[in-house]
Amino acid sequence: MQIGFNIQPRFVSGKHLDYRRYDQCVENASNGLVYAWSWFLDIMAGDWDAFVWGDYEYVMPVPSRRKWGIRYVYQPVFAQQLGIYPTPPPEIQKAFLKRLKRKFRYIHYPVSESLKDEVLKGFHIKPLHTRVLSLEEGYPAVVKEYDDYILQNLRKARMHLIKVDRQGDIDEFFDIKEDAKKIPVPEKSWKNLRKLMKTTIHDGNGWLYTASGPDNEPLAAAFFLVWRCRAYYMTVVLTEEGREKRAGFAILDQFIRDFAGQPLVFDFEGSSVPGVDKFFESFGAAKESYKLISRNRLPWFIALFKK
Questions:
Q1: Within a 10 A sphere around the Cβ of 53, how many other Cβ atoms?
Q2: Residues linked to residue 224 through DSSP beta bridges, in sequence order
Q3: Model confidence pLDDT, tens digit, residues 89-147
Q4: Are strands 163-165 and 48-53 parallel, antiparallel or unpaired?
Q5: Helix (H) or strand (E) holding 164
Q6: Under a CB-based contact definition with an 8 Å cutoff, are residues 72 and 18 in contact?
Q7: Which of 25, 81, 297, 305 could form a disulfide with 290 if both were Cys (CB 3.0 to 4.6 A apart)?
Q8: Is 142 helix (H, G, I), strand (E, B) or coil?
Q9: CB neighbours (10 Å) of residue 189?
């Protein structure tokens, strides 16, 4: 289908969005990660709308909130990146971003690397990356890429007789979270994550792994999503004892072992913290870039107050 460049993207509120055609557009996109699907955004963002091109040839989901009477775009917690689906030609990218800038005075929005810097004029661009690992070749091939650091810590986990269960309990996850080192995530986002766990574990797309010692005391838990051809390491919680006994290493290795040999890319979700990024790299995971774009046209008195 040939799409005319004289068409402009239109803003469609969430309640008027055609979910079937929206999701079909995301599904057909090579850059259509789980974060862009309507069911994920309904759970993790709640309020979200979209810019739509033509008859849903291209879509751009936009989570937003209101504060001081001003609607602004934000990044939902646990939603790594969004963007335009599928990736359109540069002129159409520019049209979407122009509408985004006109509609919202404050924008904090993660986009895939497919949106090039030249179409992002007017935004502050922060380069970011996740770490990804192909599981398709099977566990023996994957484990060959493990750094000695990972292998040493897996040996320590075995020495401490760490056991991993792939059918963990959601309440147990949140019990561990309460005992774990505090993670700077708003309570509402934890509630959304609980809902995401319930929905996806029930559907067979979510996996909750827990680790315990010989006394069966829970030491760590991690939640994974498997959607289409990608697996996502959503989050992990560990007690202090779990850290000492390398329970997190055991969980990650067990998940990789369980799903290796399938046509999956494992997304470690990346981190801007150098130590965490190095940890993911030690599994043999490669960089996959994306960007955080931001723009602030708030009234001066609000901008000053935010500082």
A1: 21
A2: 207, 233
A3: 999 999 999 999 999 999 999 998 888 889 999 999 999 999 999 999 999 999 999 99
A4: unpaired
A5: strand 163-165
A6: no
A7: 81
A8: helix
A9: 15
